[in-house]
Amino acid sequence: MSSFEEAETEETITCLHVTLYHPCQEEKQVFQHLNFHRREKRRADEVAKFGRDRNICYYNLMDSRVSRVQFTLQFFRQLNSSEFGFEIKNMSKKTKLIVDNVELDYLNKIDLPRKCIIRFGDYQFLMLRQDGESVDYFETCLELAQASLLQERHLPSLQPIPECGNSSFYSQGVKPIEIDENDL
């Protein structure tokens, strides 16, 4: 028997592909401390933290409007299954986290779908899980989007909607007029 035949079988590792977008990413350099286009191996028991505090968060966002820890991702294995996934938890007391169309308040958590968009403030993250077999590690791979991810998925933006319920007035340049209820 050759050494090739006796070698251990290499396990595949679950990888979370994350595409990030912020409308001012060029001017503000909010993603300057992130490593793009590289798979980074993390231990399965590590909690992946996204936020502005470099001492706590491995995925650092350089923006004073981002919470010290904005959200966390926890790698786990489904009960009675060999399938792995990620759980996302909102860690911001001030900002809701939107996972596709589900709003998470502070300390709310859900299982991350295989493919979804996460939004808070002006930030958009497209998450796509690539399955693997390893129980000891997971990987992340970050990419930078050049255009809004919402346009690709046709999701509503977080723009305020006027009380009349029709946001097309803004796109046509019509400014809303505030009227005191006593003037009606």
TrEMBL record:
Keyword presence, 4Fe-4S: no
Subcellular compartments: Cytoplasm
Keywords: Cytoplasm, Immunity, Innate immunity
Residues in FHA domain copies: 49-121
Primary site of residence: cytoplasm
Record-linked SUPFAM superfamilies: SMAD/FHA domain
An annotated GO BP: innate immune response
Entry-linked Pfam families: FHA
Family: Belongs to the TIFA family.
Record protein name field: TRAF-interacting protein with FHA domain-containing protein A
Organism: Pelusios castaneus (West African mud turtle)
